[in-house]
Amino acid sequence: MTAVSIVPNLLVHDAPAAVAWYQEAFGATVAFRIGEGAEIFAMLTIGEARFFVAAESPALGNPSPRTLGGSSVRIDLLADDPDRLHARAVAAGGTLVSPVRDEQDGPRMGVVRDPFGHTWLIGAPWDPRTGG
């Protein structure tokens, strides 16, 4: 089988502000950025994880959570120190959905909604197949 990867592409109503927020909240690094002003497309990395951020384009079938009034996707961000990363996201203006806590059937985790309508589960690394 050839190499396969899945890379989230977060559609937002204000792409430059979103890029800046992900940098502040998660320590993301911009790998590349195309375009100017509000019409940008960027790849960001957090550690070895990568994701795209793009300006929404409802006319092309690419609306943001703001346009939709919500999102059906949650991004799971697994990190060695979920408490610190969760607190950093809340301090940067993320909305606390649930505090970080030990889960009975899973890793230590909490949930934050970013200012652009995307929900982030921030937890410790965990493999449900092994429980560790």
Going across the major beta sheet, what is the strand order?
1-4-3-2
Name of the CATH homologous superfamily: 2,3-Dihydroxybiphenyl 1,2-Dioxygenase, domain 1
What fold name goes in the CATH topology slot?
Answer: 2,3-Dihydroxybiphenyl 1,2-Dioxygenase, domain 1
Note the main sheet: 4 strands, mixed
Structural class: alpha/beta
> What portion of residues is helical?
10-25%
SSE sequence, one letter per element: EHEEEHEHEEE
Report the mean per-residue pLDDT as an integer.
93
Shape: globular
Number of E strands = 8
Query: Which residues sit in consecutive blocks of at least 5 with pLDDT less than 50?
Result: none
Distance between the termini: 27 Å
> Which CATH architecture is right?
Roll
From the alpha-carbon coordinates, what is the Rg to the nearest angstrom? Answer: 15 Å
